[in-house]
């Protein structure tokens, strides 16, 4: 009996420990950060956050985005002092997008990234962007036409990314991985503000090219498309190209169906050449005149596509190798993995070698479907 | 805090002694001594969190380090 | 009190002990992308020592720990050895406690004092130690299934994130880092298995020691290699080598159709289960050793003071999370080499000589 009594007492005592009072958080005191951005400031940095303000209860709960900003010398300091204007504890684990303004990115990403990587409450699957021609604050304060907030707008754009083929999404882990790895440089997708029926709307398009952790230049949407193909990113978008069929030139709209890239180093007499083999399977979405049942037509179209893509790849490579001298495609990494001995002798001076790196480009475009019709629609008198 | 720790140990000791079905004096003595040592140790750590950790093998380690210059 | 542990439970016991708290650390990070090689090398190098541990264990077959020790090494030498190992086990137990509490603080309960989380674990451990190795072995045989299933399931979900190119080029920096990595994992956790010798008690047959130790060890080594390689392939070399808890970060990346995410919690649970067993085994060994030193045949009454003292012990030995990382991934610790390699070899030689003399008599 006595034993039983003591057991019961012990259980009651143990119950005291199960409440977890130390890390107890009151939900009403939390405010969810759904997106954040960083701008430069003389004193340090400005952290801009989009937070979700909840109104109503139960079924009628609605989220309304509220933009707040704080200044501090470091990002962590700014993140911490966010509670002051918010009057609540900022809850970070649900942050979906993180914007870095052009100015900050040109100064170096470490000031931002260091905090993101070290903090326990920021997830490495957050999407990173760099803004062009506007500050992060302007982007976060803009009004997307349909989404409930800028963060939601941007993250749904990324989810649609493979439909657009105009940018290469980068999550924190990808970006920081590229910064840390040998023989590869990082990029970030670009956010710009574009006028749409009188409103400024954030649009994701193009890429910012980094060298080490500093932004050094831009790729436009067309170049980014090629960049994405060379990175082996799955692309599902449309593009229009003037195509000559039977002596007549007219635009044809193509669709990416499947893309594979293979980059291999070839060593001859100590010189490195990169062999780039790009295989594209395309569909034709609209073609005014071409009859794709005719093999000859398909062949000439494919030929023209091959040449066009090879030219665009060459242009991109020139930009990357000469203009920016930043190995965003990761030739160095390929070399290291496939030919470690050669890489060892090139590693110290890779920037110089990158300039001289020759590339053999082979493009193989195949048209594999033409919508519901093979022949063009004929209009008769 | 130190008093709380001592009280905690005393409580645990009493409860366990009361509950134990048989109590040969040798075991009880050893138990009490150990519990006292544990309590004293806890109090020392509580009062001085930077209590140095003895390194009985430290000399040997230093000597090995001198031989092995590779740095680990 | 004689213990009886069936082979299957013994294997689970050994395997879970090795997996225990080690699974979340950046094991063999010195080897970088060659860590899988390190695991193979470490397994190869540890194998003879594990064999030696099993031999020591099988020599004590059919006897309680204190009887066995006494018959092998004589009365006083055996007491000294037991005291040394008891100290080592207690120290390791304290480390495991601080591993677990630091991890919990780092990833979720930031404001909870480590004392509070430690107390929860330690009370359970106290109970487990009093119940003895038999109960723990039974518990392990159940839990290893849970741990194994969860691990395999998580790895399967994450296959989409794995980039096998991360392992290339092989041995770019030569064999040096591979060896250092191998030494790291031998020190912790492979050779800590020596403590199981003192804690587990009688198995079904004399030969069973070999089956239990070797199978358990190989199983755990294989799982650890799988988990570490997987984390590296997901995170990349740089992240793996600089994170405190790589597997935790790797599973955080799992995203099944934006529906199944935040699986890192699961790893935390595995760590807690393994950490619990490891603490219990360490303290079981510490209690048995101390009891033998003091000349008692039963160890249970010593459990409370010893187990409770690991809470201040953890705080005493480890003062920051950097220290944990250093101790978990050091290349070699002088005391570890002594207790895991030098002493066991000496003990084995002495034991073999004494046994052969006995049989001559």
Textual characterization of the structure:
The complex is a heterotrimer of chains A (381), B (72) and C (361). Chain A is α/β, with parallel strands linked by helices and 381 residues long. Chain A folds into 2 domains: 193 residues; 162 residues, GMP Synthetase, Chain A, domain 3, CATH 3.30.300.210. Chain A contains 14 helices and 14 strands. In chain A, strands 1, 2, 3, 4, 5, 6, 7, 8, 9 and 10 form a 10-stranded mixed β-sheet that branches. Chain A has a 4-stranded mixed β-sheet with strand order 11-12-13-14, sandwiched between helices. In chain A, β2 and β3 form a beta hairpin. In chain A, α10 crosses α11 and α12 packs across α13. The mean pLDDT of chain A is 87. Chain B has 72 residues and is mainly alpha-helical. Chain B has one domain. In chain B, α1 packs antiparallel against α2. Chain B starts with a helix and ends in a 5-residue tail after the last helix. With 361 residues, chain C is mainly α. Helix content of chain C is 73%, strand content 0%. Chain C is globular and about 70 Å long. The two termini of chain C are 29 Å apart. The relative contact order of chain C is 0.23. Chains B and C meet through α1, α2 and α3 of B and α13, α14 and α16 of C.
Helix run count of chain B: 3
Number of strands of chain B: 0
Helicity range of chain A: 25-40%
- Quaternary assembly: heterotrimer
Number of domains of chain A: 2
Largest interface: B-C, 27 and 24 residues
The main β sheet of chain B shows up as:
none
Question: Spans of chain A of 5+ residues with little confidence (pLDDT < 50)?
Answer: none
The major β-sheet of chain A equals:
10 strands, mixed
Through-space gap between termini of chain B: 40 Å
Number of helices of chain A: 14
- Name the shape of chain A in a single word: globular
Element string of chain B (H = helix, E = strand): HHH
Radius of gyration of chain B: 20 Å
Q: Spans of chain B of 5+ residues with little confidence (pLDDT < 50)? A: none
Secondary-structure element series of chain A: HEEEHHEEHHEHHHEHEEEHEEEHHHHE
Overall SS class of chain B: mainly alpha
Q: What portion of the residues of chain B fall into strands of 2 or more residues?
A: under 5%
Arithmetic mean pLDDT of chain A: 87
What structural class should be given to the helix and strand makeup of chain A?
alpha/beta
């Amino acid at each position: 009996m006595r034993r039983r009594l003591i057991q019961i007492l012990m259980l009651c005592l143990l119950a005291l420990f199960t409440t977890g009072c130390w890390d107890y958080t009151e939900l009403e005191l939390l405010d969810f950060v759904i997106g954040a951005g960083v701008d430069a400031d003389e004193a340090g940095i400005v952290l801009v956050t989009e937070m979700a303000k909840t109104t109503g209860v139960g079924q009628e709960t609605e989220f309304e985005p509220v933009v707040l900003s704080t200044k501090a010398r470091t990002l962590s300091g700014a993140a911490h002092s966010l509670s002051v204007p918010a009057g609540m504890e900022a809850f970070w684990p649900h942050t979906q997008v993180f914007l870095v303004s052009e100015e900050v990115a040109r100064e170096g990403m470490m000031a931002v990234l260091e905090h993101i990587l070290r903090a326990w409450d920021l997830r490495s699957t957050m999407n990173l962007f760099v803004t062009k021609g506007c500050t992060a604050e302007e982007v976060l304060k803009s009004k997307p036409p349909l989404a409930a907030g800028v963060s939601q707008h941007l993250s749904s754009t990324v989810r649609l990314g493979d439909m657009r083929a105009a940018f290469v999404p980068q999550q924190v882990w990808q970006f920081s991985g590229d910064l840390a790895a040998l023989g590869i440089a990082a990029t970030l997708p670009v956010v710009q503000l574009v006028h749409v029926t009188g409103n400024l709307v954030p649009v994701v398009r193009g890429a910012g090219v980094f060298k080490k952790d500093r932004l050094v230049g831009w790729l436009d949407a067309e170049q980014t498309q090629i960049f994405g193909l060379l990175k082996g990113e799955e692309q599902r978008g449309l593009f229009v190209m003037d195509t000559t069929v039977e002596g007549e030139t007219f635009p044809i709209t193509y669709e990416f169906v499947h893309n594979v890239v293979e980059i291999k180093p070839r060593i001859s007499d100590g010189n490195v050449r990169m062999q780039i083999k790009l295989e594209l399977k395309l569909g034709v979405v609209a073609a005014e005149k071409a009859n794709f049942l005719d093999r000859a037509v398909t062949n000439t179209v494919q030929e023209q596509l091959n040449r066009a893509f090879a030219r665009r790849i060459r242009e991109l490579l020139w930009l990357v190798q000469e203009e920016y001298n930043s190995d965003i495609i990761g030739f160095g990494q390929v070399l290291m993995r496939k030919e470690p001995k050669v890489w060892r002798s090139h590693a110290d001076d890779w920037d110089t070698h990158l300039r001289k790196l020759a590339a053999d480009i082979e493009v193989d475009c195949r048209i594999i479907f033409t919508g519901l019709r093979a022949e063009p629609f004929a209009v008769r008198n | 805090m130190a008093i709380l720790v001592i009280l905690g140990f005393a409580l645990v000791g009493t409860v366990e002694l009361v509950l134990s079905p048989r109590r040969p004096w040798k075991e009880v003595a050893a138990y009490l001594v150990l519990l006292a040592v544990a309590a004293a140790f806890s109090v020392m750590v509580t009062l001085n969190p930077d209590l140095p950790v003895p390194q009985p093998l430290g000399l040997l380690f230093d000597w090995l380090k001198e031989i092995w210059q590779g740095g680990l | 009190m004689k213990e009886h542990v069936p082979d299957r439970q013994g294997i689970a016991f050994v395997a879970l002990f090795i997996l225990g708290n080690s699974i979340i650390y950046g094991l063999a990070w010195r080897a970088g992308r060659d860590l899988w090689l390190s695991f193979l090398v470490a397994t190869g190098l540890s194998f003879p020592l594990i064999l030696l541990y099993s031999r020591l264990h099988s020599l004590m077959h059919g006897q309680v720990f204190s009887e066995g020790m006494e018959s092998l090494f004589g009365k006083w030498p055996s007491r000294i050895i037991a005291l040394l190992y008891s100290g080592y086990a207690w120290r390791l137990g304290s480390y495991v406690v601080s591993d677990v509490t630091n991890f919990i603080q780092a990833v979720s309960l930031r404001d909870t004092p480590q004392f509070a989380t430690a107390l929860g674990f330690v009370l359970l451990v106290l109970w487990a130690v009093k119940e003895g190795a038999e109960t723990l072995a039974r518990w392990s045989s159940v839990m290893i299934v849970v741990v194994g299933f969860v691990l395999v399931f998580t790895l399967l979900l994450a296959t989409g994130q794995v980039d096998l190119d991360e392992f290339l080029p092989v041995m770019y920096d030569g064999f040096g880092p591979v060896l250092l990595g191998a030494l790291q994992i031998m020190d912790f956790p492979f050779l800590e298995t020596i403590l199981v010798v003192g804690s587990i008690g009688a198995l079904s047959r004399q030969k069973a020691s070999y089956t239990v130790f070797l199978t358990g060890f190989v199983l755990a080594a294989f799982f650890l290699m799988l988990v570490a390689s997987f984390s590296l392939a997901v995170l990349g070399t740089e992240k793996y080598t600089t994170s405190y808890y790589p597997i935790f970060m790797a599973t955080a990346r799992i995203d099944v159709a934006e529906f199944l995410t935040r699986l890192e919690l699961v790893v935390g649970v595995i760590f807690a289960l393994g950490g619990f067993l490891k603490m219990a085994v360490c303290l079981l060994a510490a209690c048995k050793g101390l009891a033998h030193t003091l000349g008692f045949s039963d160890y249970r009454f010593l459990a409370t003071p010893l187990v409770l003292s690991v809470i201040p012990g953890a705080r005493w030995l480890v003062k920051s999370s950097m220290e944990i990382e250093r101790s978990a991934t050091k290349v070699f610790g002088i005391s570890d080499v002594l207790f895991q390699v030098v002493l066991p070899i000496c003990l084995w030689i002495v034991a073999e000589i004494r046994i052969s003399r006995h049989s001559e008599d």
